[in-house]
Amino acid sequence: MPATLIDGKAVAARMTAEIADEAAAFQHATGIVPHLVAVLVGDDPASAVYVRNKQKACERAGLKSTLHRLPAETTEVDLLRTVERLNADSGVHGILVQLPLPKHIREQVILDAVVAQKDVDCFHPHNVGLLVQGRPRFLPCTPAGCQRLLAEYKIETAGAHAVVLGRSEIVGKPMAMLLIQRGAVADATVTMCHSRTRELASMVRQADILIAAIGKPRFVTADMVKPGAVVIDVGINREGDRLVGDVDFEPVSQIASAITPVPGGVGPMTIATLLRNTLTAAQLSAG
Ligand code: NDP
């Protein structure tokens, strides 16, 4: 039987509507409109599209968004100055530095410079530490989006074997960290796999819940998936003029119990979580 399609677009739209209601109530009470500033360096077309989508989502939720567009030749020092100016601006609640940055700029230096209270991507060591300890200030956008999808589709995670394919700071590590916590939509037994994992296919085949985040088109084939598994595909890969995930969608959807499409699965949830974090940042700044 074909898998249930996990409709991230629909869930993200519901989340955005919830955030819009909360943001309106917050504005009514405090006069503050949560404000996200995106910093985009250079002219990578994919990054420009991502930033535009984030800005449009802010509009839908009634949040203010501003774009700082800087030329590709911007120096690390100049970018640091921009970040520091935004850190000091009390009218800015969330700062997002769109990645990747041009090669001559060290991403870690820039990301570390964003003050933790405005780090709506949840990259700052302080925010990552809070997440690891199970008391997050902000949610890691993509992993928390995946977790919300599991919640919305009432996927049992407690005691389930979740395999996270990929160990990046942005997706794989925080994903594992969310699922291993005590509590709702967590309590999973988590295995993390990466490019050095031995017997990768047999590891992945043990997953009750598989989160694929490696950036390799259609890498996860049907023979790597346990019948009835829930498959969350984070990957976004360009194949000609279409986007495909890290999972070979058609055959895998014949044996999984539920699966996210690409596009329309995890992507919109990442943006919805960013909006949630921006509202949280504004609420925290208002005490
Ligand atoms: P990274 O390139 O930072 O990390 C990829 C991870 O996959 C690494 O840990 C790497 O292992 C592992 N990996 C790569 N090749 C293999 C392989 N053959 N076998 C096993 N493991 C492998 O990617 P990201 O985490 O940033 O992104 C992953 C994918 O998710 C990309 O397609 C990206 O576009 C997409 N993405 C989607 C988002 C969304 O909102 N939907 C948001 C963010 C990312 P090692 O560490 O050993 O090198």
Description:
By secondary structure, the chain is an alpha/beta fold. The chain folds into 2 domains: 85 residues, Rossmann fold; 126 residues, NAD(P)-binding Rossmann-like Domain (Rossmann fold), CATH 3.40.50.720. It is 41% helix and 16% strand. Strands 1-11-8-7-5-6 form a 6-stranded parallel sheet. A 3-stranded parallel sheet has the order 3-2-4, sandwiched between helices. The protein has a two-stranded antiparallel ribbon with strand order 9-10. The longest helix has 23 residues. The chain is globular, with a radius of gyration of 19 Å. The termini are far apart. The mean pLDDT is 97. Bound molecules: NADPH dihydro-nicotinamide-adenine-dinucleotide phosphate. The site of NADPH dihydro-nicotinamide-adenine-dinucleotide phosphate has 23 residues, from helix 10. NADPH dihydro-nicotinamide-adenine-dinucleotide phosphate (NDP) binds next to helix 10.
